[in-house]
Write a structure and sequence with these properties.
By secondary structure, the chain is α+β, with helices and mostly antiparallel strands. Helix content is 41%, strand content 17%. It has twelve helices and nine strands. The model is unreliable at 353-359 (pLDDT under 50).
């Protein structure tokens, strides 16, 4: 199949990024449309390296856990815009997570086994950086292991040399936490994922990050109680104050599926939380360019501060879509069960869990 290749010089891509910083949505100006055309090509050109990395990730991960969930996604325009606004000196070509693939394991030990596989095996692409947000969690409670690589092409794929792909490796519990942050952010119309919004909700997720770390026997989140009783008590207060259980109840959204591709590869998921409506568009692998183009068009039409969410992702099939991206289906069931577990006191004391012990407790 024909993959999109970069058509613009780095300085043109960076200029388009600067235009995106100033852009208002929906896009209606000629400058905006021109910048989006460049950004769409830049983002779409990551599809080939991303697919290559995803295949490698899938092969390595399935040798560790057959039931691992593997998915890939292109960074949303809204997220790109926010990162450029928050970091005015960042150039578009410096952004390391335009393309990302993810492995979600049941067991924490599997996360670190896969990391070691990457480090120990011969790899044709250039290692750029790593972040262990599990042993060194962010203050907001986010936990995951990140590896960033720079694609190194051969003669036929030299056009993609230098493009970066981020590999994220996490447990199902860590994924449930991240899913809940996004879902509650959608429900409450707050940028909780970006650590913005109601202080009580931000504190609740930081505390739950520590609770899950205690269950997994890893480092607690900075600034949270290091005694089990105090941690559970503070979580309990916020569960009651924020009506967390009611917020995390199952939402019965109407799901509309468009397209009938049997060998589906790419999915555009559009979420309308106010109408509780989800639209899933399906595309074959050879329709990558078409999917990316429509993805950018749909994003550019969303007004600023719209509660709607649009994402382009790739998984094995539509049945795996909800498992890989439950936040876009307003599904917080696993996280809700983790909250129940914490409220019942079924966690170790985090004060004793300040180093990795690779605990693999059941999630149920």
């Amino acid at each position: 199949m024909a993959w999109v290749v970069p058509e613009f010089r780095p300085e043109e891509v960076n200029a388009a990024g600067k235009a995106l910083q100033r852009m208002e949505f929906p896009v209606i100006t000629t400058e905006g449309f021109n910048a989006l055309a460049i950004l769409n090509n830049w983002r779409s050109a990551h599809s080939y390296p991303l697919n290559t990395f995803q295949i490698t990730l899938r092969n390595k991960a399935r040798k560790i856990e057959r039931s691992v969930i593997v998915a890939q996604r292109s960074k949303r325009l809204e997220s790109i815009h926010k990162k450029l606004v928050d970091k005015p000196t960042m150039r578009m070509t410096q952004m390391q997570d335009i393309a990302g693939c993810r492995a979600i394991f049941l067991r924490l030990s599997s996360v670190y086994r896969l990391v070691q596989k990457y480090k120990a095996s011969r790899f044709d692409h250039k290692f750029r950086s790593e972040k262990d947000y599990i042993n060194q969690p962010k203050a907001d409670g986010y936990r995951c292991y990140h590896l960033v690589y720079e694609y190194c092409g051969t003669h036929d794929t030299s056009a993609y040399t230098g493009l970066r792909v981020e590999v994220q490796i996490r447990t199902q519990a860590q994924h449930a936490w991240a899913t809940a942050v996004e879902a509650v952010g959608i429900f409450t119309k707050q940028a909780l994922k970006s650590n913005q919004g109601d202080e009580d909700w931000l504190r609740f997720f930081a505390l739950m990050g520590s609770a899950i770390a205690a269950i997994e026997k890893t480092t607690p989140v900075p600034g949270t109680p290091t005694a089990k009783k105090a941690l559970i008590a503070e979580i309990g207060e916020l569960v009651h104050k924020l009506h967390v259980k009611e917020m995390l109840q199952v939402y019965n959204a109407t799901i509309t599926t468009l397209g009938s591709a049997k060998d589906e590869k790419y999915f555009i998921v559009e979420v309308d939380p106010e109408a509780l409506k989800i639209t899933v568009r399906r595309y074959k692998a050879k329709q990558s360019e078409e999917a990316n183009k429509l993805y950018t068009e749909l994003e550019s039409q969303l007004p600023d501060k719209s509660p709607n969410q649009i994402v382009l992702v790739s998984v094995d099939n539509i049945n795996a879509l909800k498992r890989a991206y439950p936040n876009y289906f307003l599904d917080t069931n696993l996280f809700s069960r983790l909250v129940d577990r914490v409220m019942k006191g079924e966690i170790p004391d985090p004060i004793a869990q300040t180093s990795l012990a690779f605990g693999d407790p059941p999630l149920s």
